[in-house]
Amino acid sequence: MQATQPVHRDLYIDGKWTQSKKGSRLDVICPTTEEVVGSIPEGTAPDVEEAISAAVRTFQGPWSKSRGSERARFLRAIAQQMRARRDELAALETLDMGKPICEAVLDIDDGANIFDFYADLAEKLDSKQWSSVDIGPENAQDFSTNMRYEPLGVVAMITPWNYPIVQAVWKVAPAIAAGCTMVLKPSELASLTCLELAGIAQEVGLPPGVLNIVTGLGHDAGAALSSSPRVAK
Question: Which of 7, 90, 155, 190 could form a disulfide with 105 if both were Cys (CB 3.0 to 4.6 A apart)?
């Protein structure tokens, strides 16, 4: 598959598209033709720290206290947009990492279904909040126990090249459902559909700082993300 025009994308941090602080870019090479079909920013540790700061600020705001039903609306809206743009996203996936277009289409459908799946779970969280826990009749006279579900915090996500959008969605969707914020570093070999996912999140109004995406190399951006003490998981 050949691109009609080069595909160039930026980092997505705090709801905004931005260049990397280093200013350099990585070529996107189509495995089928070995042609350069675009570029992505070479994010480094300072970009990761900026993304984590955005995620921390958003987590400390209203997002982490939002109802599951509110978060479910965003999840369903993202799923809807993925289905509406299925052919475009599948073509981009094939261009970026070389899998057959028929498989790429299935991956986009799978990704949309995952968002819907976690939307259902997010809605169920509301009814489970403060639910009573059976502690046995011998303790019921003196104690009562209730369960409260809380988001963990900032989540780090580092995903591989072979199922770019699906691997990302399996992490992004549950994090949104739980009320976490996140920083995603997709593989430098296949980042384009993950960056498109950020664009979809922006289109549906997902609050800035919930989803942040930093492209770059593992020994720099990946290492900074995986070693940050501000990351909860």
Answer: 90
